[in-house]
Amino acid sequence: MAWFFASGHIIDAILVLVVGEALALALWRGRRVPLRPLLFNLASGAALMLAVRAALTGAAWWTVAVCLLAAFLAHATELGLRLWDATGA
Q1: Residue 39 contacts residue 1 (beta carbons within 8 Å)
Q2: Which of 28, 29, 37, 43 has the fewest CB atoms lying closer than 10 Å?
Q3: Residue 89: count of CB within 10 angstroms of its CB
Q4: Per-residue confidence (pLDDT) for residue 30, from 0 to 100
Q5: DSSP string computed for 4-42
Q6: Half-sphere exposure of 83 (CA within 13 A, CB side)
Q7: Which of 73, 85, 84 is nearest to 32 (CA)?
Q8: What does pTM read for this prediction?
Q9: Contact indicator for 12, 49 with CB cutoff of 8 Å
Q10: What b/e sequence results for 47-84 when a residue is b if at least 16 CB atoms lie within 10 Å of its CB, and e otherwise?
Q11: How far apart are CA 49 and CA 51, in angstroms?
């Protein structure tokens, strides 16, 4: 089990679940809630998972930094979309 974590494959398994969740949301079409913010939320989480995977596998520091930047940008986009929808603009 330690190998599963140290190799980063646990993150691969989680990312497969995230992709499945994104597909389920896309099929559901977000009838009750806007779909785009949810997908950016999932993208943010996926980028954080990639950062964890990079750290677990000993990747270069800048790989972790790029993943964290991607997570920040996806999260900022999600917040912007939600604020835009909340103001009715």
Answers
A1: no
A2: 29
A3: 6
A4: 56
A5: HHHTTHHHHHHHHHHHHHHHHHHHHTTSSS-HHHHHHHH
A6: 6
A7: 85
A8: 0.86
A9: no
A10: bbbbbebbeeeebeeebbebbeebbeebbebbeebbee
A11: 5
Amino acid at 50: L
In order of 21, 27, 35, 69, 81, the CA distances from 31 in angstroms are 16, 10, 8, 30, 16
Report how far residue 56's alpha carbon sits from residue 75's, in angstroms, rounded to the nearest whole number. 23
- Digit-coded pLDDT (tens) for 65-75: 999 999 999 99
Q: Record the tokens describing residue 86, joined without a space.
A: 């909340």
Sign for the pseudo-dihedral over CA of 19, 5, 44, 67: negative
In this structure, the chain runs to a length of 89
Q: Which two tokens stand for residue 59?
A: 């990747």
